[in-house]
Design goal:
heterodimer; A: about 280 residues; alpha/beta; 4-stranded antiparallel sheet; 12 helices; 10 strands; B: about 290 residues; Rossmann fold; 2 domains; 6-stranded mixed sheet; about 40% helix
Chain lengths: ~280, ~290
């Protein structure tokens, strides 16, 4: 069964005013947790990505259509929408700006505490989340403001992971980090997805990162879902992606140029190592 | 003709003060370099390597603990330097930051571009002229009367750049100005930065985590642990991918592919950053290798 199912969702900002903007136009989408692996969500600025993400944890209510998580329509009982926020955890862009508690431990505990957890159970959650996010235990009693940028990002991530959401949505989790920081945090998320049976969705503008860490991609353009396929399938639609203001990893463009130069290694190239493997077959 | 350095740093050292619980952190350690007027320099380095500290020193937001810093030939670290001198020097350097939403202050695009000039007390007729010209230079003339919140991230960054141009800065520092943008927005900002440099002779310093952007510069300075690790053209700096990986950095995918093909025994050069050049080089080498069999 699909963990996430969007049925014919439509949403307009500033509805019934002259500045009305349709952000989602009859969008339907099914994401099947474990079988789909990590889903990447890409689209140019204003394509509807962020609106879609806010639909998934009930921050926005669709004008039309249904959001079904785990078989339940989340708006069937609007009073219970708070529970949905624990089920679908959203890590916003630059989440480290939202750290506020006196210690890292308290900050991570904030979410689960609001869920009603106390004592040992709460403590275990905090420790597990810290471990998953790659935060060393000795950092837990420091002030969040003593941490480095990368550590702060992990602490904020741990705060959402500690709620053990069934669905974890991350908006640009690696923005502003250097190559090693990006690899650590995205690699950590990948490991977490594998070990915790959480459905993970990553939103990012970096096609190279998406190619490396996601299994399937949802491409948004002009308020609609343009494609929902594997990385290889999506990136082989090179021209179409460019036409909707997106890009492909540089290596995919090199592969296209190789084909023009008489060394065709296929259109489904999106990592350097795979390109090397295919090129070596030519020798 | 030998061009004058617009920035000259000699043995710059800077530490962030510690407190009762933590020791002071040395962010820059004996850093010396010159930036030629009209050049395009990229600064790379992992988080915490000293890149942003260096940028803050160059626009005199922070003051070095020791060493000398010359801007346009003026020694700003001279003990006799006055606040007026520092203010004047600061007027030669502009900065574009990472988050587009943190640097827009007005509710109309052209007012935002005029904001800096107004603070400098420039007569309004002159401001009008400069704002129109700056908007033209960044290709945002038709949005002059729009509200900034309706613009895309890349367009907002171009507005921020126009604000810097209107103040007639000789040197613009881009501090990860593309980090929050989508692919089109990134291209937008990079094209604008290159145009400013090539056509208007403005000195550009680009701090970035994107190796493909750094490859477009004339020169790359790699920072590591508060020191300069490498300094050279993109070809020189990226020709040793292992060293870059060791420093927690990366190389463009063109270089990575060429390097891995060379390791597999293919005779290719490494210093090609254009996608088509890279592909042509590999295709040629493959043809040669097969011909030799």
């Amino acid at each position: 069964m699909a963990v996430i199912e969007l049925k014919n969702i439509t949403f307009t900002y500033n509805k019934n005013t002259p500045s009305a903007v349709c952000a989602l136009d009859h969008v339907s989408l099914k994401i099947d947790g474990a079988a789909d692996g990590i889903t990447g969500l890409i689209g140019h600025t204003g394509s509807g990505k962020s609106t879609l993400v806010q639909m998934l944890n009930g921050l926005l209510k669709p004008d039309e259509g249904q959001v079904i998580l785990d078989g339940t329509d989340i708006w069937a009982e609007p009073k219970k929408i708070r529970d949905v926020r624990f089920k679908a955890g959203l890590v916003m862009q630059y989440p480290e700006y939202q750290l506020f508690a006196e210690t890292v431990r308290e900050d991570i505990a904030f979410g689960p505490k609001n869920m009603g957890l106390t004592g040992d159970e709460l403590n275990t959650r905090v420790l597990e989340a810290a471990k998953f996010s790659g935060l060393a235990p000795e950092l837990l009693d420091k002030s969040p403001f003593e941490l480095s940028g990368g550590q702060k990002r992990r602490a904020a991530l741990a705060g959402v992971m500690a709620m053990q959401p069934k669905i974890l949505i991350l908006d640009e989790p690696a923005a502003g980090l250097d190559p090693v920081g990006r690899r650590d945090i995205l690699g950590g998320i990948r490991q977490y997805a594998g070990e915790s049976s959480t459905t993970v969705i990553i939103v990012s503008h970096s096609m190279e990162d998406m190619a490396m860490y996601c299994d399937k991609l949802v491409v948004m353009a002009d308020a609609k879902v343009l494609m929902h396929r594997t990385c290889a399938e999506v990136f082989s639609e090179y021209q179409e992606l460019i036409s909707v203001g997106l890009d492909v990893p540089q290596i995919t463009r090199i592969a296209a140029a190789l084909a023009e130069n008489g060394a065709d290694i296929g259109a489904d190239i999106y990592t350097v190592d795979y390109a090397v493997k295919q090129l070596l077959k030519k020798l | 003709m030998q061009k004058n350095p617009i920035i000259k740093a000699e043995h710059l050292t800077f530490s962030y003060p510690g407190d009762s619980e933590s020791k002071p952190v040395r962010a820059l350690d004996d850093v010396s370099f010159e930036i030629e007027e009209g050049s395009f320099t990229a600064i790379l380095g992992h988080n915490g390597s000293g890149k942003s500290t260096l940028a803050k020193l160059l626009c005199m937001v922070n003051y070095p603990d020791s060493g000398k810093l010359f801007l346009c030939g003026k020694d700003l670290t001279d003990p006799d330097v006055t606040d007026e001198d520092i203010l004047a020097a600061r007027r030669d350097i502009g900065m574009v930051f990472q988050n587009p939403d943190n640097q827009i202050v007005a509710s109309i695009v052209e007012e935002d571009v005029a904001f800096g000039c107004e603070n400098l007390g420039i007569p309004s007729a002159e401001i009008r002229k400069r704002v129109d010209q700056a908007l033209e230079q960044v290709g945002m003339t038709k949005h002059a009367r729009s509200s900034p919140h309706n613009l895309s991230g890349g367009q907002k960054q171009r507005i921020a750049i126009a604000g810097v141009i209107a103040m007639k800065r000789k040197c613009v520092i881009f501090d990860e100005s593309t980090a929050m943008l989508d692919p089109l927005g990134r291209q937008d900002v990079m094209n604008t930065a290159m145009k400013l440099n090539r056509e208007d002779g403005i000195t550009v310093i680009l701090i970035t985590h994107y190796m493909s952007e750094a490859a477009l510069a004339d020169r790359i300075i790699v920072m590591d642990h508060g020191k300069i690790l490498r300094d050279g053209t993109p070809s020189e700096v990226f020709s040793d991918p292992e060293a870059m990986w060791d420093a927690g950095l990366d190389v463009p995918q063109t270089t990575e592919l060429l390097y891995k093909m060379r390791q597999a025994g293919l005779d290719v050069r490494l210093d090609l950053f254009d996608v088509n050049d890279c592909a042509a080089e590999i295709a040629r080498a493959i043809k040669r290798a097969r011909g030799g069999k």
